[in-house]
């Protein structure tokens, strides 16, 4: 690992100020960043730790919206959001292993936007709003605008994800085909049914990252049953092909996991 300096701000304002330094980068749970640094694939002069910022750890619900601090860990979401939004808590409970869930955070996952990550599917299917805070203040970004391709988001370099607001659907489910070596999804589908319609987000499948399967959304909005998907052709969306699964297998899984999610959501 290359040398770096670690700073530990106690507030968002202090973190934003620290990130103004040359070659400074936030670190949250370190579950993605530290292995990358150990492999010398990433380097920062200063790491700005977000783990000591209490104002980024809140988890609250008013019955219609679940709001997670960007620094909330997967384990805390699994525990504390189970009543308010069971499908999202279940997603968090199945990320990686206990060590990853204890350290990894919502903000780190959404900022990283790994094409196989779980939270991007939950955020996109829920129509979540991401709050990004930078030197000129905070702004809200709709999930539909936030995810911009492989490891790419609408975040500016000096912005951090401070909170995420998830509208709570009538019913929802996340179905994940686990890639056993990493515990990431090979393909996973998050289905969320709102009064205005159904949203379906797929992760793990596309080289462009998480995407909405709009044909499934239309079919399920008209008829929220697994049968509604039977005649649909699985999405294409530049499918990933690697040693874990071919493009055709991943396309097939998109439909299988969406169907399972609809069944689970009831
Ligand atoms: C063995 C293993 C299994 C895993 N399995 C899964 C899985 O099944 N599903 C899944 O979704 N993920 C999985 N992960 C990834 C895990 O969820 C990580 O926690 C997550 O990707 C990154 O979160 P973090 O808080 O650790 O971020 P870090 O590693 O600290 O940071 C990741 C990136 O985000 C930036 N960053 C961090 N926080 C913020 C913020 N608030 N605002 C802006 N930028 C920020 C950092 O600068 C860095 O670029 C796994 C990881 C491991 C090691």
Largest sheet: 5 strands, antiparallel
Q: What ligands are attached or bound here?
A: flavin-adenine dinucleotide
Gyration radius over CA: 18 Å
How would you describe the shape?
A: globular
Order of helices and strands: EHEHEEEHHHHHEEHEEEEEHH
Are there runs of 5+ residues with pLDDT below 50, and where? none
Q: Helix count? A: 10
Would you give the CATH topology of the largest domain?
Uridine Diphospho-n-acetylenolpyruvylglucosamine Reductase, domain 3
- Share of helix among residues? 25-40%
Number of domains: 3
Strand content: 15-25%
CATH architectural grouping of the largest domain? 2-Layer Sandwich
Top CATH class of the largest domain: Alpha Beta
Biggest sheet: strands side by side, in what order?
A: 4-5-8-6-7
Structural class: alpha+beta
Q: How many extended strands?
A: 12
Mean pLDDT: 97
Describe this protein's structure.
This protein is an alpha+beta fold and 266 residues long. The chain has three domains: 5-49, Uridine Diphospho-n-acetylenolpyruvylglucosamine Reductase, domain 2, CATH 3.30.43; 57-167, Uridine Diphospho-n-acetylenolpyruvylglucosamine Reductase, domain 3; 171-265, Enolase-like, domain 1 (2-Layer Sandwich), CATH 3.30.390. It has helices at residues 12-18, 33-38, 74-80, 86-93, 98-103, 106-112, 119-126, 143-146, 214-222, 247-265; strands spanning 5-7, 24-27, 46-49, 59-61, 65-69, 129-134, 137-142, 160-167, 171-178, 185-194, 197-203, 211-212. It has a five-stranded antiparallel sheet. It has a four-stranded antiparallel sheet with strand order 9-10-11-12, sandwiched between helices. A hairpin with a 7-residue loop joins strand 11 and strand 12 (211-212). Helix 3 runs antiparallel to helix 4. It is globular. 46% of the residues are buried. The structure holds flavin-adenine dinucleotide (FAD). Flavin-adenine dinucleotide is lined by residues 25-33, 50, 70, 95-96, 100, 103-105, 107-109, 111-112, 114, 117-119, 160-161, 182-184.
